[in-house]
Specification:
Helix 3 runs parallel beside helix 4 (about 110-120), helix 4 packs parallel to helix 6 (about 140-150) and helix 6 (about 140-150) packs across helix 7. With about 300 residues, the protein is of the alpha/beta class. The chain is built from 7 helices and 7 strands; from the N terminus they run ααβαβαβααβαβββ. It has a 7-stranded mixed beta sheet with strand order 1-2-3-4-5-7-6, covered by helices on one side. The protein has one domain (about 15-300): TIM Barrel, CATH 3.20.20. Helices cover about 25% and strands about 10% of the residues. Strand 2 (about 95-100), helix 4 (about 110-120) and strand 3 (about 125-130) form a beta-alpha-beta unit.
Length: about 300
C-alpha cells in the first residue's frame, strides 16, 4: 500500500459511505431513544438478514417461527439471494453485518452456500451463518470448507432444550443435559481453527421461556450476555440471550418473567421491529426476537 491511502485512512478512518449509513440509521432512531448508550447510528447502522434462502429445516423446535408449510416452500434461487445481499449492502454500507438465515441454510447444496458466503464478502459485507450446527456434526469437514472455500469468519449456533431433531439429544429436557453437546461444539470449533489456521468468531443463542432462568445454575465468572433485538429478516426468531465468546458459560438471566423483555441491555433499538415476548414451553411464540452478536469494529453488539 502506498503512503497516500494510508494518510487518507489516518485522516478519515470511517469511510464516507459508512458515515452516510450511520447518519441514516441515526435519523430513524426516535428522539427519546437517542441516549448516551445508543449505539445504533453511532457504532453500527443495523444488521440485515436473508429471506427465503432456505425455508426448510430438519429440526422441529417448539419455539420455531417458521410456518407449517415451510418444508414445502422452495428456496430462493442463488441469484435472488445475491440480489438481496446487494440491497443489504446498499442499506448497511461497507462492513455491514448480515445474517445468512431463514430455515436451515446448511441444507442448501454446499457449493451454493459457499457461493453465497463468498458473494457477501466480495460485496464488503460480514456474513454470519445462523445454524443449529448439526450439519457440522454429520458432515465431516463442512465447517472447514466453508471457512477455506467460502471465507466464513462468523457463525451462530442455536442450542437449547426446545429443539427437536438433534442427533444424540432428542429427549433432552434440562439445559445441563446439553453440556456435553456444547463441549463437543467447542472442540469442533477449536479443531476447525487449528486445521485451517483461520479465525472463526462464534456466537451461541438460547431460547428464553418462562421456565426458571438460568436452568443450569449460576454463570461462571467472566461470562457475558445481553437481551437484544433482531434488525433484519422477514420474521424475528425467538427471544434469545446472546452471546459470550465461545466457548463460555451459559448466559445470565435476561429480562423479567413478565413480557416484554427490554429492547436491549444496552438501550439498543431497531427500526420497524416489534417488542419481543417470552413464551411458555407449551406454546408457540407469536412475537419474538433474536439478538445481534457482539461483533467487532463498527458492528458492536441478529435465525
Amino acid at each position: 500500500m502506498t503512503l497516500r491511502p494510508l494518510l487518507a485512512a489516518f485522516r478519515s478512518p470511517v469511510p464516507g459511505e459508512t458515515r452516510r449509513a450511520l447518519a441514516a440509521a441515526w435519523a430513524r432512531v426516535p428522539v427519546r431513544l437517542r441516549t448516551a448508550r445508543q449505539f445504533l447510528g453511532r457504532q453500527y447502522a443495523g444488521c440485515g438478514a436473508t429471506i427465503g434462502a432456505m425455508p426448510r429445516c430438519d429440526f422441529a423446535c417448539r419455539g420455531c417461527y417458521l410456518g407449517a408449510t415451510a418444508n414445502r416452500v422452495p428456496a430462493a434461487s442463488l441469484d435472488e439471494v445475491k440480489q438481496q445481499l446487494g440491497r443489504i449492502r446498499a442499506w448497511l454500507g461497507e462492513g455491514g453485518n448480515v445474517q445468512l438465515t431463514d430455515g436451515e441454510l446448511t441444507l442448501r447444496p454446499e457449493g451454493e452456500l459457499i457461493a453465497l458466503i463468498r458473494h457477501a464478502r466480495a460485496l464488503g459485507l460480514v456474513p454470519m451463518l445462523m445454524t443449529h450446527g448439526d450439519s457440522f456434526r454429520r458432515r465431516a469437514g463442512l465447517l472447514e470448507r466453508l471457512m477455506v472455500d467460502g471465507g466464513l469468519t462468523e457463525v451462530s449456533l442455536h442450542i437449547d432444550t426446545t429443539q427437536r431433531g438433534r442427533r444424540g439429544y432428542r429427549d433432552a429436557r434440562r439445559e445441563d443435559e446439553l453440556g456435553p453437546l456444547r463441549t463437543e461444539f467447542a472442540q469442533l470449533i477449536r479443531r476447525a481453527r487449528r486445521l485451517t489456521g483461520r479465525r472463526l468468531e462464534v456466537a451461541t443463542t438460547v431460547t428464553v421461556t418462562r421456565s426458571p432462568w438460568p436452568p443450569w445454575g449460576a454463570p461462571k465468572q467472566g461470562s457475558r450476555a445481553s437481551a437484544s433485538r433482531s434488525c433484519g429478516g422477514r420474521s424475528p426468531r425467538g427471544s434469545t440471550a446472546t452471546r459470550a465468546p465461545w466457548p463460555a458459560s451459559p448466559p445470565t438471566k435476561v429480562g423479567s418473567a413478565t413480557p416484554p423483555v427490554a429492547a436491549s441491555s444496552r438501550d439498543s433499538w431497531c427500526a420497524n421491529s416489534t417488542p419481543p415476548r417470552l413464551f411458555t414451553r407449551s406454546s408457540t411464540p407469536t412475537t419474538t426476537a433474536t439478538g445481534p452478536p457482539l461483533a467487532r469494529g463498527s458492528h458492536a453488539s441478529a435465525d
